[in-house]
TrEMBL record, chain A:
Keyword line: Coated pit, Cytoplasmic vesicle, Golgi apparatus, Membrane, Protein transport, Transport
Biological processes annotated in GO: intracellular protein transport
Name of this chain's protein: AP complex subunit sigma
Residues spanning the signal sequence: none
Subcellular location: Cytoplasmic vesicle membrane; Golgi apparatus; Membrane, Clathrin-coated pit
Pfam families per record: Clat_adaptor_s
GO molecular function annotation: clathrin adaptor activity
Classification lineage: Eukaryota, Metazoa, Chordata, Craniata, Vertebrata
AP complex mu/sigma subunit domain: residues covered: 1-140
CDD domains assigned to the protein according to its UniProt record, in alphabetical order: AP1_sigma
Record-stated family: Belongs to the adaptor complexes small subunit family.
GO CC terms, sorted: AP-1 adaptor complex; clathrin-coated pit
UniProtKB/TrEMBL annotation, chain B:
Keywords for this protein: Cell membrane, Coated pit, Endocytosis, Membrane, Protein transport, Transport
UniProt binding sites for a 1,2-diacyl-sn-glycero-3-phospho-(1D-myo-inositol-3,4,5-trisphosphate): 11-12, 43, 53, 57-61
Lineage, top ranks: Eukaryota, Metazoa, Chordata, Craniata, Vertebrata
SUPFAM superfamilies, alphabetized: ARM repeat, Clathrin adaptor appendage domain, Subdomain of clathrin and coatomer appendage domain
Feature: compositional bias, Polar residues: 635-654
Protein name: AP-2 complex subunit alpha
Start and end residues of each stretch annotated as Disordered: 619-673
GO cellular component: AP-2 adaptor complex
Length: 154, 956
């Protein structure tokens, strides 16, 4: 199973964290620190896999963001890489040419999309169309743009 | 601030995020956050009821603040309110907050559970999905208790929407992982297996994950999934790429599902049914064939997905380890990848080949790639790839290529990354030892290790070389000569000084004939390093010097001068000072004979598995295993009784007590007094100085056994190290390794016994497919019935499970049954065998009798075969109370006033077996002067006398 997914910038700023197993806050912070230092220190054109404790860490950089996924030791690394890619595609589809700022300002959406795709550390739906359809369906339930603009700023 | 293209956004939130981003400093950020927190707090506390939107916005802000790394201690209640809202957007945010900030507050959990319950019952698939996600995200026990029985119904109900089925399957999987005991198996399990046939591939994917996890725990219940999985897999691999519509990923048909199915099949051995088996083989061949086809796309996603399936297929082939052709094909495929331009593929090929190297079918084929792997070691730019290359070289090493591989690793070590040096050192040390044909090569290799990477040579490594040199007299002279030469280098590593000091101290005499390495030259050479060394090394050197005094009387005066100098006698370090004082006194007052006895050559170490191996395993093991204090580990790696170590560390007033310096490796069992080591020769490795009455607390380091080879799935050797400890006691730890601890509590009455076996999972990860059974030799089967209750196939991390063994003694016996334990940890099968301490004396009933009765029976049992006598040396201090306790623990009554000599011990008892009862009398006569015992047993059966005598004589 997948254990956690972290998104962080080249400066090591965490943009999204998803933990699939319960963990103490302190432990989480330590892992975040370990992952950012480890991954950011990697040379370009290195392989995308690392061993960390008893886990495999799979990471990939998309523009300014690093996606870093830790999985159990018997998991398939290449497919984990494609889990990341599929998530990027989903974000891309939703935001239209996604960038780091989209994820910062709409972090809740990034979580919702992830939840449609992964669950309990396993892949839930691999079809891009299916995931998009359910995200669109839930967006239909949201307020309209006019409603949005009329809301107070504070 | 980017415009939100669709859906709703929260302007207030966006503004707040912008503000935070505009903060120039950390302080400004914290100030802004505190302001916001105060604002939200006042809104939540305010009299005015907040509308849903504001609540949502503020909860979202809190979430954002939390994700920035700040603590949030309020807002949970508002989040629960949102979660119970009828508005989807509010509900969604409420669930998100709860999922991210799990709170164990029980009142809150009840409210959350209530909300979840309503949503699950709502029949609205979107709401149901949110609720199921929340359960899976939080996954707490309370939630499992509330919903574990309901979710299976949702999963298999005919009218459940596909997307809800997917969520339900994965939610159930999550609960099964965290609280398996709460997820009831039942009628639904059979129906879950049939989801493998579902029309909807998303449902099949989710169900396959669930089934795989369940099958790992109870393979037998899910056997029917094999044929369904093979059928499904076969349909996928033969489908045209467009057939599966959106489940085709970059021209690869359902890669995720394929990999999951292949993983599911790895829970089982190859199918027994021939047709099924050949269908599976066809699938695997098709996958291997596809790897040779030209790519359908240049995109890396295409090749990744395709190769992901290929690697998983290879894993299954390796797991089955039964089809030589497939194994060889897999190996050749990986061989191609070894030279692929994609770094990822080279990395994975090296990794997979490691497992192939351990299969007898493919080991030779793997070996043909040795040059490529060595080349990878030299040329790969990426350290993690080089690390895999080291692993593979280690895995493919055997007698035929050991010299080449060790040489390559040594030369790589000179430039290797610091992060992996220690591991390489351990590997080289292990290979050099394992495949040494002549031990001169071994000694050279280790000295090279110290020369190249001295800082990374851990104690285990240099202890081990000393252990080997001491045990093999054919290499001692060579070792002495080599270290002598190595020490002549102007700058040599401290570890070399340690090895040199130890070896010359023991075997310097073997090269003293040569005038270039005369005693004085040896001493001067060692002493020239003295001042550059740390305190422990100096302490070791001082011990080497006193050994020199024994070996070479001609340098006695020189050494005494050194010991006498102020820098020694008044050294600020108490350990060094004490050694100097005591050694000096010893050299002055002791006669040559006493010196020769005290400073006799070290006795051979008991042959044990290398502690280096244990160290390597420890390194490779899960990161959160407790570190075992290396300082308390002696050369064999068995941890010494801590009192012992403390005794030597304290500046003990006894002259003798400190003769064996703490920093010198020593045989496992030797007491701190070298004298006893000298007179007793090689003692039993597990005679325990504390022993017996003090049942060590579970997990006590006393019983730690780091050697048992558990990381391989090969049939385990039966561990019987602790067997003899249980002769006189019934409870304690019988086995322990890195992963597992086995404790026993036993009770016996007449010819019946019951043992409670406790299996403790020391890791934080589950043991899967756990099983344990008891086997007996054919002879023993007729003499002893052992019935083992079954155990739960899963042991959670940190948890302990209990197994009950019922035992019936039919007739007297000598063998012992073996407890066989198997389980899966992190994908590898662990196999452990432990000799169960069920001995004949356990079925003793003590018998009290008067002196005259005793002697009358003693005479009746006078036939020569009825008596067995043994005279043996004491292995433990001869303490009357301890001896009494042992005899009582043995099961007989201790009869006072029977023997005319009050120092002797006399006991009587009856062995109960189903067929017969055997009366036993015993007498133990200690001779404190000679440190000897005489043990006499008389019973009506010769086999009983013999067995009891053997058992008891090992205890003193």
């Amino acid at each position: 199973m997948m254990r956690f997914l972290l998104l962080f910038s080249r400066q090591g700023k965490l943009r999204l964290q998803k933990w699939f197993t319960p963990m103490a806050e302190r432990e989480k912070k330590k892992i975040i620190r370990d992952m950012t230092t480890m991954v950011l220190a990697r040379q370009p054109r290195s392989c995308n896999f690392l061993h960390w404790k008893d886990l495999k860490v799979i990471y990939k950089r998309y523009a300014s963001l690093y996606f870093c996924l830790a999985v159990d030791n018997q998991e398939n690394e290449l497919l984990a890489l494609e889990v990341i890619h599929r998530y990027v595609e989903l974000l891309d589809k939703y935001f239209g040419n996604v960038c780091e700022l989209d994820i910062i300002f709409n972090f809740e959406k990034a979580y919702f999309i992830l939840d449609e795709f992964l669950m309990g550390g396993e892949i839930q739906e691999t079809s891009k169309q299916m995931v998009n359809r359910s995200i669109e369906a839930s967006d239909m339930l949201q307020e309209t743009m006019e409603e949005y603009m009329s809301k107070p700023a504070f | 601030m980017p415009a939100v293209s669709k859906g709703d956004g929260m302007r207030g939130l966006a503004v707040f995020i912008s503000d935070i981003r505009n903060c120039k400093s950390k302080e400004a950020e914290i100030k802004r956050i505190n302001k916001e927190l105060a604002n939200i707090r006042s809104k939540f506390k305010g009299d005015k009821a907040l509308d849903g939107y504001s609540k949502k916005k503020y909860v979202c802000k809190l979430l954002f603040i939390f994700l920035l790394g700040h603590d949030i201690d309020f807002g949970h209640m508002e989040a629960v309110n949102l979660l119970s809202s009828n508005k989807y957007t509010e509900k969604q945010i409420g669930y998100l907050f709860i999922s991210v900030l799990v709170n164990s507050n029980s009142d809150l959990i009840r409210l959350i559970n209530n909300g979840i319950k309503n949503d699950l019952a709502s029949r609205n698939p979107t709401f149901m999905n949110l609720a199921l996600h929340c359960i899976a995200n939080v996954g707490s026990r309370e939630m499992a208790e509330a919903f574990a029985s309901e979710i299976p119904n949702i999963l298999v109900a005919g009218d459940t929407m596909d997307s809800v089925k997917q969520s339900a399957a994965l939610c159930l999987l999550r609960l099964n992982r965290t609280s398996a005991d709460l997820v009831p198996m039942g009628e639904w399990t059979a129906r879950v297996v049939h989801l493998l046939n579902d029309q909807h591939l998303g449902v099949v994917t989710a169900a396959t994950s669930l089934i795989t996890t369940l099958a790992q725990k109870s393979p037998d219940d899910f056997k029917t999934s094999i044929s369904l999985a093979v059928a499904r897999l076969s349909r996928i691999v033969t489908s045209a790429s467009i057939d599966l519509q959106d489940y085709t990923y970059y021209f690869v048909a359902a890669p995720w599902l394929s990999v999951k199915l292949l993983r599911l099949l790895q829970c089982y051995p190859p199918p027994e049914d021939a047709a099924l088996r050949s269908r599976l083989t066809e699938c695997l061949e098709t996958i291997l064939n596809k790897a040779q086809e030209p790519p359908k796309s240049k995109k890396v996603q295409h090749s990744n997905a395709k190769n992901a399936v290929l690697f998983e297929a290879i894993s299954l082939i390796i797991h089955h380890d039964s089809e030589p052709t497939l194994l060889v094909r897999a190996c050749n495929q990986l061989g191609q990848f070894l030279q692929h331009r994609e770094t990822n593929l080279r990395y994975l090929a090296l990794e997979s080949m490691c497992t192939l190297a351990s299969s007898e079918f493919s080991h030779e084929t793997v070996k043909t790639h040795i040059e490529t792997v060595i080349n990878a070691l030299k040329t790969e730019r990426d350290v993690s790839v080089r690390q895999r290359a080291v692993d593979l070289l280690y895995a493919m090493c055997d007698r035929s290529n050991a010299k080449q591989i060790v040489a390559e690793m040594l030369s790589y070590l000179e430039t290797a990354d610091y992060s992996i040096r220690e591991e390489i050192v351990l590997k080289v040390a292990i290979l050099a030892e394992k495949y040494a044909v002549d031990y001169t090569w071994y000694v050279d290799t280790i000295l090279n290790l110290i020369r190249i990477a001295g800082d990374y040579v851990s104690e285990e490594v240099w202890y081990r070389v000393i252990q080997i040199v001491i045990n093999r007299d054919d290499v001692q002279g060579y070792a002495a000569k080599t270290v002598f030469e190595a020490l002549q280098a102007p700058a040599c590593h401290e570890n070399l000084v340690k090895v040199g000091g130890y070896i010359l101290g023991e075997f310097g005499n073997l090269i003293a004939g040569d005038s270039r390495s005369s005693p004085l030259v040896q001493f001067n050479l060692l002493h020239s390093k003295f001042h550059l060394c740390s305190v422990p090394t100096r302490a070791l050197l001082l011990s080497a010097y006193i050994k020199f005094i024994n070996l070479f009387p001609e340098v006695k005066a020189t050494i005494q001068d050194v010991l006498r100098s102020d820098s020694q006698l008044r050294n600020a370090d108490v350990e060094l000072q004490q050694r100097a004082v005591e050694y000096l006194r010893l050299s002055c007052i002791a006669s040559t004979d006493i010196l020769a006895t005290v400073l006799e050559e070290m006795p051979p170490f008991p042959e044990r598995e290398s502690s280096i191996l244990a160290k390597l395993k420890r390194k490779k093991g899960p990161g959160h295993l407790p570190d075992i204090d290396d300082a308390r580990r002696n050369v064999n790696g068995s941890t010494e009784p801590s009192e012992n170590t403390e005794a030597t560390k304290k500046s003990s007033p006894s002259l003798m007590a400190d003769l064996l310096p703490t920093n010198r490796p020593r045989p496992a069992s030797s007491s701190p007094i070298m004298l006893s080591a000298g007179t007793m020769g090689s003692t039993h490795p597990f005679t325990d100085l504390l022993n017996l009455n003090s049942t060590p607390p579970s997990g006590a380091s006393l019983l730690v056994d780091v050697f048992s080879d558990i990381s391989t799935a090969a049939p385990a050797e039966v561990c019987e190290e602790n067997f003899l400890r249980f002769v006189c006691k019934n409870n304690g730890v019988i086995y322990e390794n890195q992963l597992l601890q086995i404790g026993l509590k036993s009770e016996y009455r007449q010819n019946l016994g019951r043992i409670y076996v406790f299996y403790g999972n020391k890791t934080s990860t589950q043991f899967l497919s756990f099983s344990s059974s008891v086997t007996s030799s054919d002879t023993l089967k007729a003499q002893l019935n052992v019935h083992a209750k079954t155990v739960d196939p899963v042991i959670e991390g940190g948890a302990q499970v209990q197994q009950i063994l019922n035992i019936e003694c039919v007739s007297d016996f000598t063998d012992a049954p073996v407890l066989n334990i198997q389980f899966r940890y992190g994908g590898t099968l662990q196999n452990i065998g432990v000799k169960l301490p069920v001995m004949l004396n356990k079925f003793f009933q003590p018998t009290e009798m008067l002196s005259q009765d005793f002697f009358q029976r003693w005479k009746q049992l006078g036939a020569p075969q009825q008596e067995v006598q043994k005279i043996f040396k004491a292995r433990h201090p001869m303490d009357t109370d301890v001896t009494k306790a042992k005899i009582l623990g043995f099961g007989v009554a201790l009869l006072d006033g029977v023997d005319p000599n009050p120092a002797n011990f006399v006991g009587a008892g009856v062995i109960h077996t189903k067929n017969t009862q055997v009366g036993c009398l015993l007498r133990l006569e200690p001779n404190t002067q000679a440190q000897m015992y005489r043990l006499t047993l008389r019973t009506s059966r010769d086999s009983v006398s013999q067995r009891l005598c053997d058992l008891l004589s090992e205890q003193f």
